[in-house]
Design goal:
4 copies of one chain form a homotetramer. Chain A is mostly helical. Chain A is built from 9 helices and no strands. Chain A has one domain: Orthogonal Bundle (Tetracycline Repressor, domain 2), CATH 1.10.357.10. The first copy, chain A, is elongated, with a radius of gyration of 19 Å. The structure holds a DNA duplex.
Chain lengths: ~200, ~200, ~200, ~200
DNA sequence: CATGAATGAGAATTCATTCAT
DNA sequence: CATGAATGAATTCTCATTCAT
């Protein structure tokens, strides 16, 4: 009876369009009109599904993080149990994201990071995402580190790598050649391994 | 056209206000009205000294970079001739910038990085700044590396550290406790040293 | 076209919800979405029962007037045949409406009065309602006045009391303590009696 | 030097236009575009002088009240010292306002009364205005009443007349013939005098 | 140079109403 | 009848920029 709800799908379509537009023109440039056009829907429909631009951004952040996380989880699954390999797999997965494969996501993520500066709500979820990344790294580092490595040191290493990944993203967003994929991956591996000693 | 005003000082005052406001509210939030109020001048006056908001941003980027560069140059000067020490001094200087000492500059810099995504003119000078940083690091790495280290490897190391610094800035801008100064500095040193082996 | 629905009850439910929402947030604030939510029905259903928001308002005006009229008619019935008592019963009944008993109706009525300013269709039925009230008062005044009181004078008295009641409603809608029920009733009685002399 | 400020005058012009448009089309109908057109200025200029529509409304309320107050104060000044005459002068002045002389103000005032239902900020200043009117009447009643009249009774009388005036405004706003000026004035006088006995 | 009023091109948002299911 | 997604016109508000004084 009645019209079947396609809300979830529509929300995803809209968020996907938003991410693409934002990657191309920044958050301010991602006007509702531009997003609507990209999605091929009237502007009002966006407001039928989202409370506003901020709500759309917040929802997109979740989507972006999920996409990033899924990506490296897939890789981790393919990796064996060797702790060091697992740690490197994590790093590889993230740094490789700067590749064309998902450039839009990475660039959009950089925009989120900048909005986090100005908008408390965005900052909250952005920082949470960073912490989740660091926590994941902490476990990987803990498993890969020498037996008596202090918890503090593990935490620091995890934080540093988490931050470095963010830097790779930023650089990749503005200059693909700066840290060409192959190079960046290799070097990030070296940095990570360096922290294990 | 921005006049070759006798009041270069005014331009600096305005740019300084712009940076502060941008650090607090982002680029979009740094309205001309807000900047003018912060500087304690009428809004129209900004347009006597700058061609527009973009011009103001471009000028501020130069100012920010100069400020950052001056800071670590001072440190480098205090450092001896040992190549490794010099390299670490460079890293220390940058990472320490996330401290309260110049938080506003760092946060504003992050905003510049996001604007670079959307605005070609900004991207150009932002990328140039990143390259200058990498080039500086390249020389430092070259001097500190083992004799036969390949040029490519030195370049990659420099790029990775340059990017990591950007990541530290981003994280520091939204979460001062994430990479508390002391920790971040120490870990960045370890990462850098790791790349030398 | 509003269907001659078998669910006249639905229309009433919707109108009741509309009145409540309008009393709380004004006519503009009584959005179809808010009314639907209040009524616990989907938004589209309102349009099955009413031609539009204006139609809903018009129907609600009738409902409000009926509610008000019923109230004082009940009182009049309980009152004997003494003309003065009947006149005072009418006044009491209206002024007492400002009490919590039916505050929402009174407040909604005030909103109707304001919409009558801008919307001709509303003005028409609102003015008609005011005239019916005045006409009712005219008869009561005629019966209660001294034998040779002129028709003009009776009409004027009726109009003044009718208007004063509207004023009591307005005041009650925004400030329940202004004309606390007991006081207002007593004073309106005095005013009415004063007009009889 | 520089451009002389005409802010105060502009604000008044805008508020005057707003009142006129609101009297014609209600608060919701008084769009910024309509007000701007009426004032013969671009829409943006309104926002240069007022924080928003609500701010414009608030400012207009002050203006309306001042206009009303000035009007009867002028009359009071022309009236001698006889307390009853002064009281009646006050009543006359208000009721006569429904005349064409200042119909727009009265109608706009009715719109304010309706907005007071929905908007707390408006309610606050509207209620304050009503209280000032009542307080003024209280003093006049106190002076005109029989020596031992209780304070409570004086207050009640003042409140009732204050409310009745609001009702006259409402009625005048939608139906000029309902309480034609002459009649309304005469009857309100009788009502007021009735309260003195 | 200085001032701040003026301008107008968008931007987000609201919401009554329509319509496919 | 019922449902709620879809539509798009209208509205408020923002803000860089211009310009008269």
């Amino acid at each position: 009876m009645a019209r079947p709800s396609n809300t979830a799908q529509r929300r995803d379509e809209i968020a996907a369009s938003f991410i693409e537009v934002m990657a191309a023109t920044g958050y301010a440039g991602a006007t509702m009109a531009a997003v609507a056009e990209r999605a091929g829907i009237p502007q009002g429909l966006i407001h039928h599904h989202f409370d506003g631009k901020l709500d759309l951004l917040m929802h997109s952040v979740g989507r972006l993080e999920r996409r990033l996380v899924e990506r490296y989880e897939t890789r981790l699954r393919r990796t064996g149990t060797d702790p060091v390999r697992r740690l490197l797999a994590f790093v590889d997965a993230h740094v490789a994201l700067g590749a064309d494969a998902d450039r839009a996501s990475v660039t959009a993520w950089v925009c989120v990071g900048a909005e986090a500066v100005a908008e408390p709500a965005v900052r909250r979820i952005y920082v949470q995402a960073l912490r989740r990344r660091r926590d994941e790294l902490r476990e990987l580092f803990a498993a890969a580190s020498a037996p008596r490595t202090s918890r503090a040191r593990v935490l620091e290493s995890a934080g540093a790598v988490a931050a470095a990944i963010e830097g790779i993203f930023q650089v990749a967003a503005v200059d693909p050649t700066f840290a060409a994929r192959g190079h960046a991956v290799r070097t990030m591996r070296r940095m990570t391994l360096g922290l294990l000693r």
